[in-house]
Q: What sequence folds into this?
């Protein structure tokens, strides 16, 4: 039996459809129900929906054997897990952005608003740039517009939110997509099952 | 002593203590703190760079020890014996995971420092396998060789693999390997070889053959494959638990030979890790070689212990007029028959007992 943590939302539903086509269907999963855990004995799979940022926690603690997490969440959490497959969905970019007329003042630390403080610190420290991180939980784009920060480090999908607010991407840090991750210990004991899932999923990846 | 009264960790320690002593290892005890400079000079050897520090009365900066091996190797500096074999049961102080809170983490392990030969390494590996077996349940010991990584780096004209490539190997991230190798100046060919090496399945022999055939001109890769092959063959029965896994890596500044990591079926993380650390021993001037391992029994009870339905076997409820001597006699009688017994003049709230005896 494979225990799978899926991220709630559109991305999770998209990946479930891929898993369904790969032979890991679970009839009840997409029904409107209050159930939290969905098991299909016949297909040897048990799913649970969790908050996207919690997927790595469930997998790292071995409650889920495998899970689906964005590269952004993996990079921020630093979870010690295996990253077995790029699922090629949920594609976007981790970027540094600011207002269109932004000019950097190199005489003081750069003020960076972000939901991803570890990513921001690692990126700017690799460039020897001193920064002051302002951790936010949402509406990150507001920060440079209202003067809370110089720049933001955030996910950019199409860039339309930035454009509508007279902002633009300054630098791309890394590309993002959903990844299939596995708990390291569970992988040792369920290797055949997990590898078979990876191989079957590979055939369902979007171009 | 009633062994049921011991925690899983205590029982494990007693069984390992016997095992280690029977192989000639002696107990090493140390202080809870060391000079901070020991750790600041060897930060990459530590699992976490977060260290609890405090000032000594003479102005020296001290630290609650985040690691045991460094203290033991430092202690071996200048010893007269050609080899030193010690085991320990100590607490270390560090965050349990990146960004986590500081915790007191218990650790049981052994170190073999001095002149290491083939037998010494084999003994350490065998004891590691025995220790993992002693934890209980199914187990797997991943084994790799730092020489393989050095050889791969050298074949690309580098002294060590870049951190980004190491991170990719560690997480078995084959899909990003090509782009990362290229961005680190390693070329597509090496990326393809690394992908083939990491995805090689099947027996240990097949994985070692893959290493030899992918990097045939690297002396270090060939030697690493030979050493692993010989060790696995010599481990005989214990060897069955070992699985060659080249995604297992450690810091090359300290580790130079065989490295290993043990997993048990019920536990979500590695419960044992170790390897050969000649580079650390040489750096601290404590001889020519060292190898050892540590077992982390801290959370085992959480995953292994079945919650008990009762708080005790017997409750002796005595009244105001009951003679104290009679109560004590009854309690002793019950305990001697193997029952966990508590005597109280009232029923304790929230507790459950299999049997209640009123006196």
A:
């Amino acid at each position: 039996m494979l225990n799978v943590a899926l991220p709630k939302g559109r991305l999770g539903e998209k990946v479930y459809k891929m898993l369904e086509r790969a032979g890991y269907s679970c009839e009840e999963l997409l029904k409107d129900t209050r159930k939290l855990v969905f098991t299909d004995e016949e297909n040897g799979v048990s799913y649970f929906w969790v908050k996207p940022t919690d997927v790595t926690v469930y997998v790292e603690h071995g409650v889920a054997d495998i899970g689906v997490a964005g590269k952004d969440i993996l990079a921020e959490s630093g979870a010690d897990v295996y990253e077995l497959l790029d699922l090629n969905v949920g594609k976007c970019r981790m970027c540094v952005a600011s207002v269109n007329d932004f000019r950097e003042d190199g005489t003081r630390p750069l003020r960076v608003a972000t939901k991803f403080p570890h990513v921001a610190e690692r990126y700017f420290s690799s460039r020897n740039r001193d920064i002051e991180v302002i951790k936010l939980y949402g509406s990150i784009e507001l920060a440079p517009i209202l003067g809370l920060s110089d720049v933001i480090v955030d996910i950019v999908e199409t860039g339309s939110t930035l454009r509508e607010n007279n902002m633009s991407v300054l630098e791309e840090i890394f590309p993002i997509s959903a990844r299939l991750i596995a708990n390291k210990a569970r992988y040792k004991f369920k290797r055949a099952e997990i590898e078979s899932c990876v191989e079957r999923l590979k055939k369902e990846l979007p171009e | 002593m009633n062994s049921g009264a011991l925690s899983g960790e205590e029982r494990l320690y007693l069984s390992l203590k016997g095992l280690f002593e029977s192989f000639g290892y002696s107990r090493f005890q140390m202080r809870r703190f060391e000079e901070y400079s020991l750790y600041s000079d060897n930060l990459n050897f530590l699992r976490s760079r977060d260290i609890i520090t405090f000032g000594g009365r003479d102005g020296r900066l001290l630290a609650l020890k985040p690691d045991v091996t460094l203290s033991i190797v430092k202690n071996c500096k200048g010893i007269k014996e050609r080899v030193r074999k010690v085991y320990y049961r100590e607490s270390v102080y560090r965050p349990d995971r990146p960004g986590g809170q500081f915790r007191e983490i218990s650790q049981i392990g052994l170190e073999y420092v001095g002149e290491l030969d083939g037998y010494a390494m084999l003994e350490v590996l065998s004891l590691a396998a025995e220790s993992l077996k002693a934890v209980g349940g199914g187990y797997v010991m991943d084994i790799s060789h730092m020489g393989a990584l050095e050889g791969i780096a050298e074949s690309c004209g580098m002294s060590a693999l870049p951190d980004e490539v190491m991170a990719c190997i560690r997480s078995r991230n084959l899909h990003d390997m090509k782009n990362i190798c290229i961005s680190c100046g390693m070329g597509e060919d090496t990326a393809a070889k690394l992908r083939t090496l990491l995805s090689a399945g099947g027996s240990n022999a097949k994985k070692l053959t893959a290493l030899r055939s992918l990097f045939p001109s690297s002396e270090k890769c060939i030697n690493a494959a030979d050493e692993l092959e010989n060790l696995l063959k010599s481990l005989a029965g214990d060897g069955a638990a070992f699985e060659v896994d080249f995604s297992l890596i450690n810091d090359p500044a300290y580790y130079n030979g065989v490295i290993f990591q043990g997993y048990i079926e019920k536990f979500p993380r590695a419960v044992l890790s170790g390897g050969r650390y000649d580079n650390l021993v040489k750096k601290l001037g404590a001889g020519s070689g060292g190898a050892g391992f540590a077992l982390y029994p801290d959370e085992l009870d959480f995953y292994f212990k079945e919650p008990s339905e009762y708080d005790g076997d017997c409750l002796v409820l005595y009244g105001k007029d009951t003679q104290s001597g009679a109560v004590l006699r009854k309690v002793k009688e019950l305990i001697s028959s193997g029952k966990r017994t508590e005597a109280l003049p009232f029923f304790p709230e929230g507790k459950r007992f299999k049997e209640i005896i009123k006196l």
In short: The first strand of chain B starts at residue 26 and ends at 27. Chain B touches chain A at residues 97-99, 138, 140, 142, 171-173, 175-176, 201, 243, 247, 263-265, 267-270 (CB under 8 Å).
